[in-house]
Write a structure and sequence with these properties.
The chain has 213 residues and is an alpha/beta fold. It has a single domain, classed as Vaccinia Virus protein VP39 (Rossmann fold). Helix content is 44%, strand content 23%. The protein contains nine helices and seven strands; from the N terminus they run αααβαβαβαβαβααββ. It has a seven-stranded mixed beta sheet, sandwiched between helices. β2 (72-77), α5 and β3 (99-103) form a beta-alpha-beta unit. The relative contact order is 0.16.
């Protein structure tokens, strides 16, 4: 991957982090903000729908939605370790034949990826430097619903990002965290023809669902 941030993602979200995330998921289930996103998506009919999960981690979103009627899911992730963990967990839960995986920078891969009824980005926007490119490319793939979790606008989120990025810089780690403005994300999605149907703050995170009119 020629994207510097994606190289950072590959190194930061490594096998150790993937194993830790998978252990936590098996013990506790999806994170609280992820559960709120899933509940909001389930409020709309998902039976028979297809899913595109960008930056899917160990696969919590597709595994949940496949269990309630989504027919197939594609997971695109810049971390090969997380794709391996997600693939193994999907097979363990009996969904391996309904999942597809692509490794790499979603923005670069977007022209080759088919649209889906539902597109999700759970704590992904904060890991990508070009919010315009990521939101525009992902929104163009959503036929019905677009769900995302991203950091709330707050001084604390900004300060936390600044401290973390300073530590990454000192350690010569190319990975960075980005606190993109809610107004920017909302404007990009509305310009893509999507309307906000749900929004809730969960701790430091904002959960939102957008839909095609």
């Amino acid at each position: 991957m020629d994207c510097c941030q994606c190289q950072g993602i590959e190194g930061f979200f490594n096998e150790r982090e993937a194993a830790r995330s998978l252990k936590k998921y098996r013990r506790d289930g999806p994170a609280r903000s992820t559960r709120v996103l899933l509940d909001a998506l389930r409020a709309s009919p998902v039976e028979g729908a297809t899913l595109l999960d960008i930056g899917g981690g160990i696969g919590a979103i597709p595994l949940d939605l496949l269990s309630v009627g989504v027919t197939s899911a594609t997971d695109v992730d810049a971390s090969s370790a997380y794709i391996a963990a997600a693939r193994a967990e999907a097979a363990r839960q009996g969904f391996g034949d309904r999942m597809a995986y692509q490794h790499g920078n979603f923005v670069a891969l977007a022209p080759t990826i088919a649209p889906a009824d539902i597109v999700t980005l759970d704590r992904v926007i904060c890991c990508y430097h070009d919010v315009h490119a990521l939101v525009q490319a992902s929104a163009s793939k959503a036929r019905r619903l677009y769900g995302l979790v991203y950091p709330r606008d707050s001084w604390f989120s900004g300060a936390l990002s600044a401290v973390a990025n300073t530590l990454f810089r000192l350690r010569k780690n190319p990975f960075r965290i980005f606190a993109h403005r809610t107004s920017t994300i909302d404007s990009l999605l509305r310009n893509a023809g999507l309307e906000r149907r749900f929004q809730r703050n969960v701790g430091l995170w904002r959960v939102a669902i957008y839909a095609r009119p």
